[in-house]
Amino acid sequence: MGLFQKNRKHTVRDKNEFIQKLKSYIDNEDRRVLNEDFFEWKVKNWNTLSDNNFSPKFTIVEVKNERIKDDNFAHVTTKIVMFIRNPYDYKKYHCQVSSFENFNKYHNSVNFNLIKRSDLFPVDGNSLLENNKGTVGVYIRTYFYDKDNLLEEIKWKEEYKEDQQVKEYFWEWKMIEIWKILEGIPVHSPKFMIDNKEWIIKLNSDYKYSESSFFININVINIDKEPSTNNKYTQSKMIVYIRNCSDYSCYNYGICNSRNGISFKLPKNISGYIGSDFNKTPIERNQFMIGVYLYTSIDIKKKFLDKIKNCIHDENRIVEGKGHFELPIDQWNQLSDGVISTEYTVCDHKWQLELFPNGLGTSTRNRNFVTTRLKNIDSNLDDFTHICVKKVFYIRNSKDYFCYKLGDDESLTYYSKNYNAKGCKLIEHINLYTERGNTNHSIIENNSCVVGVYFRIYKYEHECYKNEMKYSLCNENREVRGNGFYEWNIENWNQLFNEDFSSIFNAANYSW
Predict the structure, then answer these.
(1) Average pLDDT of 400-408?
(2) Which of 1, 128, 287, 463 is at a distance of 20 to 30 A from 502, taking alpha carbons?
(3) Is 0.85 topped by the overall pTM?
């Protein structure tokens, strides 16, 4: 960003035009402007600069960087244009514009990768440095700090994930009985409701801490007669802050411990202003504001996965491995015959999830269904691989874990060389675009969805061996009159003749 012209005349008009140009780069986004100003640092010997150099201190809107760095309560929100220009020509410059920046004790600087060294001397000769001199500067616009700024800042470290359902609660209480706190008398807030629970705030102080400061301890107490039991899918965090009643920019905050609460250190000079408006204390005219912000996050992915897991009953079998993987679909209407996932390894076996949007086979009935299969990749290479599995298929909305359809709950299935892919008809086409359950969503939205499978691999025991042989038989629609099973244990194989017979055994009411 910048303008380059051959013009060495340095006039006040050039400077004013330059400042107006810098101002035009800032979008206020409907925020109320508090003040704005301009500062330049003239570097007279550029070649002597080291890796880290600092300008002289400067004040903009009576906010000094040094003051913010040492003040627990000062908060400033800004937008900044950082620039470098030719020291003789305002029309030769390069600049960058920041987004909104909130400055406080813990975040008191902002960095710009302003320009490459090689771009300081462009090939057209319009250099930003001349006679070993350059000018670096900043245009800063500050904004009124309101409730939204406060909430944005106390939440900035929280990372909300797509698979979390977040609820937020906010409550404030104006504390006017400051004399009780100064005399060490505990003070209680009115009762209030947050997250369907009843709370109170308890205040204590240690006014004798030092000659210049004292501590206020804030404890937020749940007074429900029957406190709710912990939900393994829900996490909560409570942030408590103390602020000036008339100024949202003057505050401090921290995470409230449920046992010990939180303490704030305050100066004993509580008469009001110490210096400029940005040097207030939270206590002014014998009152201050206490705020509580509570957010709860529900791990809906874990909740959903646990529901899937509970569909499978182990029935005292030994679990040797577990697998879960998903196949995201971004362009459903462009799918043709089938989609195959990448390979996954579970319990030393390789697997793939297969999706057939128009079913398997040629019958009209099958073509009206979405079919999924879990395929074992290594079983078709090994004559002796036999795997016992229980699995659950599902298809869900790509953004909403509560909008889903499970496949029919299956009994044990067996994988081998001849049977290396097992699946089910998952959902009929007409149900892909209808709203499901309590959600306002359909499984396919914006042409996307997710198909998944969860499965368990069990130890292959004698029962599995018998059942796999049983299920490998095709009855061809004939009536089954009986079943039988017999094994002939041969101890001396090398002593067998060309033809030998087992002992007689009975099965299905016949002798064999």
Answers:
(1) 88
(2) 463
(3) no
